[in-house]
Each structure stands twice: as structure tokens, then as C-alpha cells.
Amino acid sequence: MRPAGADAGGGRSLRLRLDVSYDGTDFSGWAEQPGRRTVQGVLQAALGRVLRTKPPKLGVAGRTDAGVHATGQVCHADVEQSAWLAVPGRSVRAPAHALALRLADVLPPDVRVRSAIVAPPGFDARFSALWRRYAYRVSDAGYGVDPLRRRFVLWYRRAVDVAAMAAAGAGLLGEHDYAAFCRLRPGASTVRTIRTLHWARTEEGLAVATIEADGFCHNQVRAMVGALLAVGDGRRPIDWPAQLLAAKVRDPAVTVVPPHGLTLEAVGYPPDASE
Amino acid sequence: MRPAGADAGGGRSLRLRLDVSYDGTDFSGWAEQPGRRTVQGVLQAALGRVLRTKPPKLGVAGRTDAGVHATGQVCHADVEQSAWLAVPGRSVRAPAHALALRLADVLPPDVRVRSAIVAPPGFDARFSALWRRYAYRVSDAGYGVDPLRRRFVLWYRRAVDVAAMAAAGAGLLGEHDYAAFCRLRPGASTVRTIRTLHWARTEEGLAVATIEADGFCHNQVRAMVGALLAVGDGRRPIDWPAQLLAAKVRDPAVTVVPPHGLTLEAVGYPPDASE
User: Fold this and answer.
1) Minimal CA–CA distance to B15: which of B173, B126, B145?
2) CB distance from A106 to chain B under 8 Å?
3) Which of A113, B25, B159, B226 is a good FRET partner for B39, with 20 to 30 A between their CA atoms?
4) What digits encode the pLDDT tens for the residues A39-50?
5) What's the rounded Cα separation, in Å, for the pair B86 and A213?
6) Across the interface, do A151 and B152 touch by the CB < 8 Å criterion?
């Protein structure tokens, strides 16, 4: 964590916590990349414009891939105290949300800052996070996906058995080396703790996986969902995902499902590191 | 109603009932127009392709305007019995839905046929309908609209009082001449019966109007919602919409709200005219 109280320009700084939602369809993911439209890039530019400073660098809880959505993303930025204090309306109506209101007029409609507040001492969007929760949505209706949700739901052409997928998912819970489901990065651990993995048919034709862990390695959720769907449609036995996990190596038989069914829904922080 | 049992080509025909959903964003409304992408045009072409016939003409419950969505639209088509019987898979798995399954592969993802079945005797999507139900969705959150729903929710920049709008809406219930809220069409009656008009805050920042009537004249829902929002944000008194209604002439002070917040959610038929 960088020392509090001083920004890159040497002035007095403070750390902001931003709660963010976005439709990932038209973004090349969270992380900024030269020449690409990314959530981080768009947000940093908007913050610089509203604060009339150099775009501040954002730290983030979940570096979502291209096409992945978020309704509960959390990030932080260190900004000059003077710039924060100069946000119009800050001291008038709803001062804590004045920055979010200004950003609403500057950001494109596919990304919204729901709240922008001064973070508690020591807060870091990435390192303070205790858990991340993702949802993956699948339609197995023969007619396809509800047009009003087609950007956020995968059309899966085989009917799936939600109870079988839930049973298979139970075999992936706990603290394990999830290398079987991760795109490996040199030197990065693939040990994680999955606290929740359940499937529910929230309405006819719509099956939703909810997965919560301390963190996820790259592609992990989408690879696990791919393995579970193979159980759900009857192609694999219920203990297949647990067998994959135990093997600790990637199996080419596992399909990484497309990004657009995936949404980062919530990030948890300890009580003293949230509002 | 056209006589049952004979189609335009002289062969034996039958009437199909189609239950349809669409994202209206990229359509020039329901009704076909030369050179425009319309729901009716796209659906008729897809039906012709799957049935290998001339595109059949569709009758419809609600002729939605450009930009208006539907989750519960109902339409009918008279098709040659021989073409219906020739739909692949019709007699194998889920015969009643074989046509819907075939249409899923032919239609663009912003329109879906959830069900396509032989209609009961005398069924007419327009004239058999007893009621239509629309929802209009408004976000009055300072940060804007949830990016995942921005195509279907109006961003209203003033906070609204849902209880005040519900009270004002009660003054519009019953059988009345709604000329004050209708774009007049020569010779068309503007007398309608509104059975339900309520507002609910379904979650923080989201207010939803639900309006059910035997039918609606052109622009009626959007003009009524515009009048109610003016009550909700405090610019007009609660009895203003009822006063407008009583005047029976359009008042330029009424704003017709944009189409994208509006969704046709359900159409009701008598028991013997539905499945």
C-alpha cells in the first residue's frame, strides 16, 4: 500500500472508493491497454476530467476479461485532496455522492459509478477484498435467450439438470489448488478457497451459477462452469469436475464458456474497510 | 375474421398463435414498413423461410412503436397446413414447439418466438384480446441507469415520489375518453377502460409503472407516464392528470416520455381462446 497523505504531485492526497457497474460487451475488459476501449481507461479519463487532474490510476478488486460484466465491481483511486474538495456540489446536496453525480454526465451509459466516497484508512480495492462473487447465467430454452437479457446470458442448446450441476459443484468447494481450471501465469499461485458454488433455476429456461471465493485465477470461473455444464447436459458423470480438480492439470476436455454470461456481482471487505 | 380452413393459395390452412419477445432498440416498431427493419417484417420473413412458403401476414395484439420492447407480445398467422406439418422435428420432440425451435436458428437474437402453437378456433391475436399490460421503467438514481438495463429503463434526472404518482394514477382508472393522452387518428375512438395503474419502487433507484387496459390509443401510455412523472417530481399537483383527462383535449404541457422505457408485458385472452 502506498503511504497515505501524499499524491504523485507531492500535494495532500486521499483515497476514494468507487463502486462500479458496467456492461462488458463493448469493452476489451477491465485492464487498460493502449488503443483499446477498457473500463479502467474510460473510468480514469472520466475521473481526470471531472477532477481536472491527470487521470488517476485505479486499483481494482476484479480484473474482468473482455466481455465480462459487473454490477458490484469495486476500485480505488488516490486523488489530490484539493481536486476532491473542488467537485461542484460536493458540499451542497448529498456531498458523499457529488462525484458520482458528476461522473454520470461524463461517462458513457455502459459504465456507471454508483458511489464514490472517501475510503477508510488502509483500504485497497484489491488487497482488502475478502471475497469476490460471480454469477454465470445460462438459458437452455429451445427458443434461445430472452432478447432483453441476451447480452448477459449464454444460450446453451442442451437442456441442463441443475440438481446434477449443484451436486458436481459441491465437489469443487473448499481450499484447493485449482490449476486444472486456470490459465497458468508464471509464479502465480493457483490455490484458492471457494466458499459458495450453487446453481439455481431462477425462472423457466434460466439457470444461474453463483460462485464465491477469496479470489479466482484467470479463466477459473468460466472453466468450472464449462465442466459443470458437461455434467448438466449428461455428457459427464457428477464426479468428473472433482476428478479434474484432483488431477491439478488442465484437461483439454474442459470448455471455457464464453465471457458474456459472466457478471462480477459483489466484493466483500472487512467491516472496518468498507463504508 | 377470415374463414378458417382455406389459405390464400386455396389449400387447407390453419391459424398459429405465436408468443413473442423482442428488444425494440433496433427495430422501427412492430408494423412493417418498406425499407425499414420492423418486428413484423423480420418475423414474417423468418416464418416464410422455415415454412418454405410465402411470408404469412401476421395479426398482432399490440402494434408497438419504434423503440418499444415486448416480453409478452402475441400474434397470429394463417399458414398452409401442409407447410406446418412439414416442419422438421414437428412430430418428434416437443411437437408443439418444433416451429419455435426452428425459428430460434433463423431469427436474429433481438427477437424470439417463445411458443408457436395451433390457435384455438376463432382466435385472433388482436380482436380476441381482453386486455394488454405494459410496464414503464424509470431510474431516478443520480448516477444514471444500471448499464445492464439501460436499453429498457429511462433515466429521469429528478427524484420521484412513487406514492404521489400512484395516487395521481388512481384518478385515471376506469372507462373514460382518453383523448387528452392520445395522438388522434381520424375516426378512431379514444374511449378505453384502464383496469390497473400502479407504481412500485422495485429496488432502490428504480420506479416501475404497470398499466393494464382493454386497449390503448396511440402514445397513451407514454403520455400518461409523462403526466405522472410531473407529479412525481413535484412540478404538478396530484390531481393534475385527472384534470387533463377531464379536459379531453391534448395539453402541450404533457410530455410524451421516450419509447425505450416501455415494454408490452402481457396480453390476456378468454380461457377458450388461449392454450
Assistant:
1) B126
2) no
3) B226
4) 999 999 999 999
5) 51
6) no
- Average pLDDT over every residue of A217-225: 96
A101–B148 C-beta distance less than 8 A: no
Distances in Å between the alpha carbon of B52 and those of B29, B79, B88, B96? 26, 11, 11, 18
Mutation to test the A interface, candidates B30, B107, B143, most A Cβ within 10 Å: B143
Whole-number CA gyration radius for chain B: 20
Window 210-239 of B: residues touching A by CB (8 A cutoff) are none
Handedness of CA B242, B245, B249, B255 (dihedral sign): positive
Under the banding of pLDDT at 50, 70 and 90, the label for residue A86 is: confident
For the stretch A57-80, pLDDT in tens is 999 999 999 999 999 999 999 999
Q: Catalytic residue among A23, A65, A78, A161, which?
A: A65
Distance between CA atoms of residues A40 and B178, nearest Å: 49
Q: How far is B164 from chain A (nearest CA, A)?
A: 23
Question: Is the Cβ of B93 closer than 8 Å to some Cβ of chain A?
Answer: no
Residue of A69, A109, A148 lying closest to B145 (CB–CB): A109
- Are the folds of B13-127 and B131-267 the same? yes
Global ipTM = 0.88
- The residue of A93, A99, A143 whose CB has the most chain B CBs within 10 angstroms, and thus the best one to mutate to test that interface, is A143
Closest CA of chain A from B94, distance in Å: 10
What are the C-alpha distances in Å from A262 to residues A23, A110, A134, A202, A211? 11, 16, 7, 16, 11
What is the helix (H) or strand (E) element at residue A47, kind and residue range?
A: helix A39-51
Q: How many CB atoms are located within 10 Å of the residue B151 CB?
A: 21
Domain segments of chain B as ranges: 13-127, 131-267
Residues in chain B with CB shorter than 8 Å from the CB of A142 are 94, 97, 100-101, 104
* Nine-digit cell string for B6: 382455406
Top-level CATH class of B131-267?
Answer: alpha beta
Cα angle value B176/B216/B162 (rounded, 5°): 80
- Write out the three cell numbers for A243: 476428478
Alpha helices of chain B — where are they, by DSSP H? 39-51, 81-85, 98-106, 162-170, 220-232, 240-247
Percent of chain A with pLDDT over 70: 92
Tell me the C-alpha distance between A82 and A85, whole Å. Answer: 5
- Structure pTM? 0.91
Question: Which helix (H) or strand (E) element contains residue A106?
Answer: helix A98-106
